[in-house]
Write a structure and sequence with these properties.
3-stranded antiparallel sheet; 8 strands; Rossmann fold; alpha/beta
């Protein structure tokens, strides 16, 4: 159990401080993952940025991810997506369009504060506050793979064990503090798991840029 996202990030940072990193950049998956990323970037002396990917919600169960979509528009589906009631090609087209529009909205908002980092040849740490299905992380890793980083490290506080195995082949290294066999929701592993708003992400990105330039 973690106190909050900052507590989890500090524990992750302790694990990563011994790593030999090349011009590191920490990418958070908005929104909660950016809070984690900001702490990691501060503790590791790294650049902070975001990577935009969104889960595809199940019909009638918006908290359940049946897949995810990255900034490049590519869709990743979970192995059980076809078994979820209401998941049809038509539904997925509509949901894809909705989530891609949200990615574009966030891109305009966040990129007005922080232009995208060039990750080519760098050590990239991708983080979120937790991973349930792994679909959103997979989408993020696919986006990054095309940009030719030196290495990609996935760092998360908590993840379902089967989710870890899905994206382990797509990154250089995984750091995860908890892999509970009984996984209900990410929030159950935090005492304080309040919702993070766009304004908080903008603030963290702006503050990180000010620190770099001063």
């Amino acid at each position: 159990m973690f106190k909050n996202r900052e507590d989890a990030a500090l524990q992750l940072a302790r694990r990563l401080k011994s790593a030999e990193l090349t011009d590191p950049v920490v990418l958070g998956i908005p929104r909660g993952g950016v809070v984690t990323a900001a702490v990691l970037a501060r503790e590791l002396g790294a650049e902070l940025d975001v990577v935009l990917s969104r889960k595809l919600r199940a019909p009638y169960q918006p908290e359940l991810a049946v897949g995810a979509i990255g900034e490049d528009g590519e869709v990743f589906l979970t192995s059980f997506a076809s078994e979820v009631p209401g998941v049809t090609e038509a539904y997925l087209r509509e949901e894809r369009g909705h989530q891609l529009a949200e990615i574009e909205r966030r891109s305009k908002l966040f990129r007005a504060v922080k232009p995208p980092a060039d990750v080519t040849g760098r050590s990239v740490i991708v983080t979120d506050d937790g991973i349930a299905t792994g679909a959103t992380m997979l989408a993020a890793l696919h986006v990054l793979g095309a940009q030719k980083p030196r290495e990609v490290i996935v760092a998360v506080a908590v993840a379902a064990p089967d989710a870890l195995e899905k994206f382990r082949p797509h990154c250089s290294r995984v750091e995860c503090l908890l892999t509970p066999s009984e996984f209900g929701a990410i929030s159950q592993f935090y005492r304080d798991f309040q919702q993070v708003e766009d304004e908080e992400v903008v603030r963290l990105l702006r503050e990180s840029r000010i620190k770099v330039t001063t």
